[in-house]
Q: What sequence folds into this?
């Protein structure tokens, strides 16, 4: 098994435990580079379920369930809707456009950005879950809306992980029930090893989070998103140039 694959998933798990999100996109980029489009997207959803799940469990007592419950209703609606229309499509350009939009909104709070960052938690949950099915980056849009909250860092991270866990579960359910997806053809030995690596990264990330001051977490999230968006844009441009 490639050391770069294991290392990438380990770093992704740490990022998830420190930020509550972001690690999912790292995992997506790593897995897409090794396994290609549709299979990479499915593997990413499986890894996210465990990564967000481990992080949420490690911080279970700090989750703001009152905030999360309405979002979970939206996630159920969005995932169900996505299941009815899902077809595997090339979303590379869409990912780049949405990632650029997210980057602009994170650093410049404006009315245009707020068109896709809904204040209604049910609507935002539905939008993020449906977007995640097709592009794999819906969770980070949901996390961007949570920057408005004034939580301690532990609540911020665990609540984001709790919500993103269900977004990942919703995406995986769509892939599982879609007649166009062959989940049973995945390499389950590799998957088992990566899940173990994810647990180790989540555990390490818990201690990294403890060492970071509360007022730094949001800025670290923004910087991490910036790096990830630039990586997505670079990959899209490089692909288009090759074509």
A:
């Amino acid at each position: 098994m490639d050391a770069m694959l294991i290392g990438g998933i380990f770093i992704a798990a740490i990022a998830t435990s420190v930020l509550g999100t972001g690690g999912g996109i790292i995992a997506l980029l790593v897995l897409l580079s090794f396994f290609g489009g549709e299979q990479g997207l499915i593997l990413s959803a499986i890894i996210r379920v465990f990564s967000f799940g481990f992080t949420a469990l490690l911080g279970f007592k700090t989750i703001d369930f009152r905030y999360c419950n309405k979002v979970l209703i939206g996630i159920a609606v969005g995932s169900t809707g996505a299941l009815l229309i899902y077809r595997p499509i090339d979303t590379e350009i869409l990912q780049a456009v949405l990632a650029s939009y997210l980057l602009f909104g994170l650093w410049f709070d404006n009315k245009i950005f707020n068109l896709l960052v809904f204040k209604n938690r049910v609507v935002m949950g539905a939008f993020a879950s449906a977007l995640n099915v097709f592009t794999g980056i819906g969770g980070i849009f949901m996390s961007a809306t949570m920057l408005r909250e004034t939580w301690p860092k532990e609540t911020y991270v665990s609540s984001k992980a709790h919500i993103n866990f269900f977004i990942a579960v919703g995406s995986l359910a769509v892939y599982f029930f879609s007649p166009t997806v062959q989940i049973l053809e995945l390499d389950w030995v590799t998957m088992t090893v990566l899940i173990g690596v994810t647990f180790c990264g989540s555990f390490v990330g818990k201690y990294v989070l403890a060492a970071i001051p509360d007022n730094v977490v949001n800025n670290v999230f923004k910087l991490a998103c910036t790096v990830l968006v630039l990586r997505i844009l670079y990959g899209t441009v490089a692909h288009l140039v090759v074509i």
Remarks:
- The radius of gyration is 16 Å.
- Residues 3-242 form one domain.
- The chain has one domain: 3-242.
